[in-house]
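Example record for the data management plan.
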Amino acid sequence: MQTEKKDIRALTKEQLRDFFVANGDKAFRGNQVYEWLWSKNAHSFDDMTNVAKSTRQMLEDNFVINHIHVDQMQQSSDGTVKNAVRLHDGLVVESVLIPTETRTTACVSSQVGCSLDCNFCATARLKRMRNLNPDEIFDQVAAIDAESRFYHNRPLSNIVFMGMGEPLMNYNNVIKAIDKITSPEGLGMSPKRITVSTSGLPKMIKKLADDDVRFKLAVSLHSAIDEVRSRIMPFSENFPLADLRESLEYWYKKTKSRVTYEYVVWKGINDRKVDIDALVKFCKYVPCKVNLIEYNPIDDGEFQQADPEVIDAYIKALERNDIVAKVRRSRGKDIDAACGQLANKNEAAGV
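Corresponding structural encoding:
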């Protein structure tokens, strides 16, 4: 019975070098192949043109490259591109290229579906099928970098982990992917241009701080009142704001990196003065900035965009207290690529 071939990108450079030595070849061959896999983003062993045919055949006999495939690409009227990304086992995730005049940002997924139950998010309605591997996360970024160069004549400038899934519930693989993305042997991007967005898992936020990460942290807050927040995000009943606050204070003490709060304002849910006052108070605990995000409906009526004057009241209250605040207009709404809309509605999702 034939054993299943191992995904070659699960191997470290040292393991690749050892493989070649064990098979009677030189250790440097492992460096060559590693460069093809990561720096040159090879999709198959035949792409490795400076490696002997017999060596490529040996690799083919022992390994696979489980590369993603962009099944479907949709372009928005505002230039946003959404990729339906098919994985080696047939499952599909989505990732998004968001262009502005000064930058191009990749919004990438970390899980197939999501483990959490945020009521306003389409992705949360998909059950979590599995975590993405580091190479599958890396491939999303590499694909969007290529699209950025093709459509906008410039490399990818920023990455946000705000696609499908909760990144901190796939902690090890996300960290490994970021290590590859930021390595000179990978994409060589600065960690300061990467933001990991979490729904707020205090224990894992502390772990990030202990691991001395260099990327930025964003928290989907949406309310600074426990009762309201647990209505919006039921799982947060297990993670009260007092615990979240403590973990963020710990994060700032260790990293000296300010936190970004992602905050959507909904009509009749978090649009009262008491909601604004609670957010202002919460923002004073650690240096931060607030992104007030335009809401993107997901087909039912419970969550509706708040009135513009409420958004103005939030902005004024935050600025009055010297808290940086911006209104983020959503991009790619016409192709369901906006924040909270990633739910595999496209035809490629049928597996």
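Summary line stored alongside the record: The radius of gyration is 22 Å.
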